[in-house]
Specification:
The protein is mainly α and about 240 residues long. About 55% of the residues lie in helices and about 5% in strands. The protein has one domain (about 5-244).
Length: about 240
């Protein structure tokens, strides 16, 4: 079956603001802290870079917040402008997956929620996230694990089928059935069962390999390029959305 990449109708526009105050000069104030926002109708994302932001935080911002919001723009194009029956947890999960980090903090929160029997059902994250910073953070962490679960369990082709089903106007149950052979409720049960098995970091071999390369490079005077290639290959696997 022929596949093609999704292309945005318009170039991505990234607007930099110096503070939240600049944002709220023209936008209604939000109860949650906002670091970036995607305006999908216009292909625009606004990013807040505080004037006194530390260099380390700024680098993390570029690696995480910027690709997160850009992912929303691609998601909007891949699904279709007029389609509204999209679970928020799916949209946010794919955006989280596309961030340039190892999601260690996400897994720590999810593991803690498992231990405390405090996982938030995905059904409760369909439209809105619960109030409170801790629950919001856990919501994002759970969403990211759903994307990891989809890619690791079903693969890219099944994700393409999901997007194609949505594009064809199917509701979520039908779309999930076509892509994964499960309706949304059954998918959630499968995800929860999978998450419970992930009590430790999903792939410890990544850490082991990285440490081994580090030690070898120090002993043998290996090139820094080897480490860079390893990091890029390991942690920067991004979803490529195709249309079936």
């Amino acid at each position: 079956m022929h596949q093609r990449r999704v292309e945005l109708e318009n170039p991505i526009q990234l607007v930099i603001l110096n503070s939240e105050d600049e944002l709220y000069e023209w936008r209604e104030h939000d109860t949650q802290s906002i670091g970036g926002e995607a305006f999908t109708d216009f292909g625009t994302t606004i990013q807040i870079f505080e004037k006194d932001m530390q260099e380390g935080i700024q680098e993390a911002w570029i690696n995480e917040v910027v690709p997160h919001e850009i992912s929303h723009l691609y998601f909007f194009q891949a699904i279709g402008k007029d389609y509204k029956d999209i679970p928020r947890w799916l949209n946010e999960g794919l955006a989280g997956y596309n961030e340039f980090n190892d999601h260690g903090a996400d897994w720590a929160m999810v593991r803690q929620a498992i231990q405390q029997d405090a996982l938030i059902p995905l059904g409760e994250l369909r439209n809105d996230f619960p109030e409170g910073d801790e629950k919001v953070s856990l919501s994002y962490a759970e969403c990211t694990t759903t994307a990891i679960y989809i890619i690791e369990t079903y693969g890219q082709d099944s994700l393409n089928k999901l997007f194609s089903a949505y594009q064809a106007g199917e509701n979520s149950d039908a779309a999930f059935k076509q892509a994964f052979g499960r309706n949304v409720a059954d998918f959630e049960k499968d995800w929860q069962a999978w998450v419970v098995t992930q009590q430790s970091t999903p792939d410890n071999s990544v850490v082991i390999i990285f440490l081994a390369f580090t030690i070898l490079s120090l002993i043998c005077g290996g090139s820094l390029l080897i480490l860079v290639i390893l990091l890029i290959t390991t942690f920067n696997k991004k979803i490529k959305i195709n249309v079936v």
